[in-house]
Every structure is written in C-alpha cells, then in structure tokens.
Amino acid sequence: MKYLIIGNSASGIGAAEAIREVDEKSEIVMITDEMKTIYSRPLLSYLFDGTILKKDLYYRPDEFYEKKKVDIIYNKKVNKIFPEDSFVLVESGEKIFYNKLLIAAGAIPKIPNIPGIDKEGVFSFRNLNDLERILSKIKTAEKAFVLGGGNIGLQAACGLKSYGIDTTVVVSSSYLLSQLADETAGEIYKDLFEKNGISIKTNSNVTEISGDKRVEKVKFKDGTTEDCQILIIGKGVNPNIEFLKSTNIKCRQGIEVDEYMRTNINDIYAAGDITETVDIVTGKKTINAVWPCAYEQGRIAGFNMTGLMKKYQGSIRMNAAEFFGLPFISIGIVKIKEEDYEIISNLDKEKNIYKKLVTKNNIIIGLLFVKDIDKAGLYHNLIKKKIDISPVKSILLKDNFNTGVLISLIKKDKDLLTEDVLSDII
Amino acid sequence: MSMKKIYLNLHKCLGCKSCEIACGVEHSSSKELFSAINEFPLPIKRVSVFSTVSHCIPVRCLHCEDALCLFACKSGAISKDESTGRIIIDSEKCIGCWTCIMVCPIGTIYIDETGKTAVKCDLCAEKEIPVCVLSCPTSALFYK
Q1: How many Å lie between the alpha carbon of A20 and the closest alpha carbon of chain B?
Q2: A2-108+237-305 — its CATH code?
Q3: How do residues A55-100 score in pLDDT, each as one tens digit?
Q4: Domain tally, chain B
Q5: Where are the alpha helices (DSSP H) in A225-371?
C-alpha cells in the first residue's frame, strides 16, 4: 500500500497521524509547496506581533517525518492528477504513484481585482513566505493599510502596529468581524482597536493602488487617497482547486466528499480547507475552513484510507481568537434576521462582556461570546447534539448553567447510575 | 499500556468539594492551603463538583481517547502521553488561542491565573495518585 498526501498542514498531518495509528508499515509520501517543515499557519500572527519566536511555529517535533516514516517532498506543486493510472504529476515532471490519495491542498487567499494590486508592497497573509516578505519591507514603511476586518486582517493589523507602523484597517461592511460576529461584538472590537492606536475605516474599500513600482498611495471608494507603503489583503480564502480542473473530481465551491471523506473518484479522498462537508448546524454542504475541522477531517480520511469506515459527523464553523487581551469565541450561526429564530443574550458594556446564543425550535444553532468564554464548549456540545434546551432556557446564560446542568440535559436520571457518566455525554 | 483513570462511585459523592480544595492547593505555588488562599492571582482548580437533578458529580478532564482538544490545538501544546494516555498541556507552548476551550464538550479546560494559557487536569503529574482521589473522604473517587 502506498499513501500519497497532497499538503502538509492540519488535515495532511491529521491523516498521516491517523494512518500510522492503524498501519505502521505502508509507505506514506507527502508533498507540499511549502519550503519548511510542519508549521502552524494560525500561529503566524503571533510571530508577526512578537508573542512567539519562530521556533514556536513548529507544532510537531523536528523528527516528526522520521518518526512517522513519512517521505516528505518540499517545495513542489502537484500539477495534475491522473486517477485512471493512479499517479500525480509534479511540476518538475516526475510522476508519483499512489494506491490511496488524499487531497489536502488547502486554500489560497482571495485577491480582489483592484488596479495596481500586483505592485510591490501588496501582500497576502497566509503562509510563512508571505510573512517573511512583509517583514522584509517593514523597515521602509510608515503607513500601512489592511484590507478586510476579519480574523486575518485584524491579526495582520496587530502585527503591523507592533512594529510602530501607523495602521488602518479598511472594512467594506459597517462593522468588524462581520463574518464571525454581530454588530454589538464588532463595535466592542472597533473601540478596542482604536484605543490601541489602530484606525478602522468602515463602509469603505480600496479602489486603486498606485505607485511607481512599489505601492505609494491607495484610493478609496469615496475618492480620497492616502499614502501607503504596505497593503495587506485579508479578504478570506478560496479552496485551492485550480489544479483539479482537468480531472473528473467533483467540485462545487470545494471538493465534494461523502461522509467517509471520499471524493467521487475511487481511492481519492479530500479533507481540510479545500473540502465541502455537511455543516452540522445548517445541514448544507459548505466549506468550514477552520483548523479543528481540517484536522478532524484529515484524521477521518486517514483512517478510512487504511480501510476503516469512520463516519465524519460534519463540520461547524467555529472561531476562537483574542485581540489586546479580549478573547471571543464564535460558533455556528450568530446573525439571523428571520423570525423563527430566538436570541438569548446579555451585554455588560462596561466590562466588555457579551454573550449571545441563537436558538431555533429550542435548539441552539449559534454562539457568540466575548470575554467570558470559559463555558463555550458546553454550548458547543449542545449545538452538535441538537439538544432541546427548553427545560433550562431561563438559566441558559446564567452563572448556574454548568456541566451539571449539561449532564442532566443529556442524560436521563436513571442513566446516571453508571460508573462512566461523563464519557457518555461527550 | 497502563492507562489509569479516575473513576467515580456516584452513590458516595456527598458534594463536599474536598477534591476542589485539594486540586487548587496542588496547583498553587506554595502547595499549602493557608498560603494558597492568599496567593495572587489565586491558583486555578481543575475539578469542579456540580449537582445534577439527583447526584453530585466532580467533573474534570477525562483524558479522552479521542481528545478533541488535542486534535484542535494549533500550537502543538496539547499532546498525548502514549504510555499513560494522559492528555497534557505544555504551558510553554500554549499561546492562549482558546481553541481547546471552544471544543471541550464538558468545559474542563480553564484560562490560567495569568490569563495567558489554558490549563486543565494533569492527573497530578508529580504524584502517584491524583490529589482529588487522595482527598476524597468517602472514597467516591478512585484511581485504577
């Protein structure tokens, strides 16, 4: 048996680890266009703002590939897959054969179509290479703009600010974190960023980037222009499916898989940010490009590639982050307009504590917590299990909602009389 | 593999919270009750006794076989000791992204005293038997 894994981030690593739990002997080949060993992309922002050192990026030990007996091929792109003959063609021209293939090629940054976007000094912020390029220009910059007020954009802004650069985040919506949060939370973070010296420009967009070779000025929707030496694009990601176009692997937005992470082509699996999976909350196929889902999908694909039949329960959009000491967690659907949804929330503006649950037919479908995040996992559990919360609705966001209440909700009283009460409610 | 775990005899738990106190003291810097309660910031206990409709249940990390926190950790701070099955958080490597808190289904991962890293039950790494078990006056908790 020969396993081939395209990609060495969360889902690729998850797959390799799972395969080795079951199959110690077979050959595993992993190919990546990255130049470095396993590092954590989500940690790049912590390196950027100086919270961690470069050595801390590596989330698996140096000897990982050796220990797991994985042949790693760096710095090479896969150009094409030939499913009929079970091989992939690498850009250098060589063929790599496989018995089971995992496509875990991740996502690539969305680059908006703005005149001048290809100028020097305009960067995306996805991988280590991006960060190194940003850092190489940082000493010659005084004014920077970040396009996009999501997690990546805000993290990039914090990084720029840590170098003393005058930084403005340009957001097309009316508030920050509009994909993960609501207006209330967005406003809390806007105030926080502004207090920490980062300007926020909402309802705006960059319409033109000008400069000789390097970016010198950016022009906004309202016609005004400002000086700019660094522009970072944080407008989200697209699945990296371009190289699959010539195959019959079924893609919509991302690669379509069944509940065993199999594509429509025999022996080819997909996992991670390139993959569409069923969202537990909406029941619809979507890409939930977040780390925990990517790892879990990779792990399940890995097991199934060895011949096991593990079902993937589905993905949930979930984000946890912290800015300037203020953490938040956002899961599922947090903004909703329709009437059959109910919102339970409380806000302490003084303390920046905000808690919001979205429910439908007494089942929680979304959570947004700012600052007070420690019980988020309990609600996450209720969301995943679709538990009827009506018996505890009145205390759902109160201090006395705790693991004991959760146990009572999930388990019937008589079931409690077993030794292993807790492992059953997970 | 000797995978020792903490078990609970539900009929015996009176909800006295001795385990909570012992856990807090064990994870303090002084490891002495009267000094620990004066520490600033206060040490964080990693077990909590909750009431269900009919019982009291001390809840701490279960060191799950398929640990969601382990799979979700972005920094490699959470690892599994293959020989004991313990799920451990390395506070040196933890960056405080709170992803583990987001995914723990029973809420047994906490923010540490400094607000910087995640902490949870370590089965009292330095002790042969976890202190919650040792401190339980009714032997409701046992370790095997």
Answers
A1: 13
A2: 3.50.50.60
A3: 999 999 999 999 999 999 999 999 999 999 999 999 999 999 999 9
A4: 1
A5: 291-305
